[in-house]
Amino acid sequence: MLVSEQRFAAQALEDDGTRTYFDDVGCLALWSEDKRPARAWARDGAEQRWIDVGSALFRAGEHTPMSFGYVIDMARGDLGWDAVRASVRTRGRQ
After folding, report:
1. How far apart are CA 6 and CA 88, in angstroms?
2. pTM of the predicted model, to two decimals?
3. Please, what is the end-to-end C-alpha distance for the chain in angstroms?
């Protein structure tokens, strides 16, 4: 997938070494319903670094490339990865 804005990017690494990139963390959340990546990261837009989604804090309400609205915010985030995945799965892409 073409990543349109680096600050919203996410990536997954599968056991076989396949790396898949996403331009919105919501796309990674949907993709991970069918595939279980060995590791997954998302971009912390403020710090410009990759953070493992399992230890990241997310917040909702940002305008993101695919309109899922979740971004990493280690200072003010109040959602973990499981909550993001559940929300994306429940509402799907709007």
Report:
1. 21
2. 0.89
3. 19
